[in-house]
């Protein structure tokens, strides 16, 4: 007999494929996706609670409680420092060349959750990849929620060092969706 947890892990693998094969603007691949389980989830939750205390952001702690109940978490990130040569200005710089100089001269600070600047086209690719992944989870009836909080601490724990932005998608299979608590 196959357990619900094993099914969730299988769906997590399908979600990684969905994210990796999602359409990308201008055809340049910069998406990285992986799955974490067990002890790595506990590490993420503990780091989220510590971050909540350190920065005074309670929602990190709230999300930590939810992910402790999860069977798997899909992490999806983007190499937002990559340039596509569009010179669109969406990043705040006139050209991709100016953007590249800014990336090199402005390392992340203790106050920023994500290093920047990021190419807006690459960030859009991340959004499309996230949408493809959660669609896959939904089609397989696995409860999920996109959490930027998970991505922030995943980067602090060096789980996705090549990425400039990461989001986490915790997955759960139970009789009640843990991501939308109801009070009666």
TrEMBL record:
Protein's name in the database: 4Fe-4S domain-containing protein
InterPro entries, per the entry: 4Fe-4S_dom, DUF2148
Superkingdom as given in the UniProt entry: Archaea
Annotated keywords: 4Fe-4S, Iron, Iron-sulfur, Metal-binding
Domain 4Fe-4S residue range list: 69-136
Pfam families: DUF2148, FeS
GO molecular function annotations of the record: 4 iron, 4 sulfur cluster binding; metal ion binding
Organism: Methanorbis furvi
């Amino acid at each position: 007999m196959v357990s619900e947890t094993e099914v969730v892990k299988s769906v997590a693998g399908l979600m990684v494929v969905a994210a990796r094969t999602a359409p990308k603007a201008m055809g340049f691949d910069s998406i990285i996706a992986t799955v974490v389980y067990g002890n790595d989830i506990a590490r993420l939750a503990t780091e989220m609670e510590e971050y909540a205390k350190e920065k005074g952001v309670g929602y990190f702690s709230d999300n930590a409680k939810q992910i402790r109940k999860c069977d798997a978490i899909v992490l999806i990130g983007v190499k937002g420092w990559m340039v596509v040569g569009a010179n669109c200005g969406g990043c705040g710089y006139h050209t991709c060349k100016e953007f590249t100089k800014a990336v090199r001269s402005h390392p992340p600070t203790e106050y920023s959750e994500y290093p920047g600047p990021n190419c807006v086209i690459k960030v859009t690719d991340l959004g499309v990849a996230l949408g493809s992944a959660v669609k896959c989870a939904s089609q397989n009836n696995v409860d999920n929620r996109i959490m930027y909080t998970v991505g922030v601490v995943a980067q602090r724990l060096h789980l996705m060092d090549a990425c400039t932005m990461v989001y986490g998608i915790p997955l759960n299979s139970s009789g009640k969706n843990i991501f939308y608590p109801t009070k009666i």
